[in-house]
Amino acid sequence: MPQYMLLIFSDPAQGPAEGSPEAEAEFKEWYSYSETLRAANAYVSGDPLEPPSTATTVAVRNGDRVVSDGPFADTKEWLGGYYVIEADDLDAALDHAARMPNIHYGSVEVRPIMQIPGM
C-alpha cells in the first residue's frame, strides 16, 4: 500500500499559547487524531519535533562541513512534526491530513514516499 508523509507546518503565534488550557485541549485532539489513524490501519509512525531553535543544519561545501545553528530557512511557519501513513491513494491521504487538529491555522504538506525496489 502506498505510504505518504504528512509534514505539519504552523505558525506558533497563530495557535494556542504553550501551557494554556487551549493548548492542553489541542494536545488531546492530537492524541485522538493519532488514534483514528491507528483505528483506520493507516498509522505507520509520527512524532512532534522540538522548535526550530533546537535545530542544527549541516552542509558540505567544497569538501568542508559547514554547521550552523537553527533551520536553513527563516520563516514564520515551521515544521512541527510529521506522520507517515499508509493510504489507498492521494485522495485518502489528503482526507487524513484535512482532519489534523491544527488545520484551521496551519497547513500539511502531503508527499508520497518513494518506493525503491530492493530497499
What does this 3D model show about the protein?
This protein has a single domain (3-112), classed as 2-Layer Sandwich (Alpha-Beta Plaits), CATH 3.30.70.1060. Strand 3 and strand 4 form a beta hairpin. With 119 residues, the chain is of the alpha+beta class. The strands form 2 sheets. Strands 2-5-1-6 form a 4-stranded antiparallel β-sheet, with helices on one face. 24% of the residues lie in helices and 35% in strands. It has helices at 21-39, 90-98; strands at 3-10, 43-48, 56-61, 64-69, 78-86, 106-112.
Please tag this protein with its features:
119 residues; alpha+beta; Alpha-Beta Plaits; 4-stranded antiparallel β-sheet; two-stranded antiparallel sheet; 2 helices; 6 strands
Question: What's the short story on this structure?
Answer:
With 119 residues, the chain is of the alpha+beta class. It is 24% helix and 35% strand.
Strand order of the largest sheet: 2-5-1-6
Structural class: alpha+beta
Gross morphology: flat
In total, how many domains does the architecture comprise? 1
Count of β-strands: 6
CATH domain topology: Alpha-Beta Plaits
CATH architecture designation: 2-Layer Sandwich
Strand content: 35-45%
CATH class: Alpha Beta
DSSP helix count?
Answer: 2
Q: In angstroms, what separates the terminal alpha carbons?
A: 15 Å
Percent helix: 10-25%
The fourth-level CATH homologous superfamily is: Dimeric alpha+beta barrel
**Rg, Å, rounded:** 16 Å
State the low-pLDDT regions, or none.
none
- Largest sheet features: 4 strands, antiparallel
Order of helices and strands: EHEEEEHE
Mean pLDDT: 92
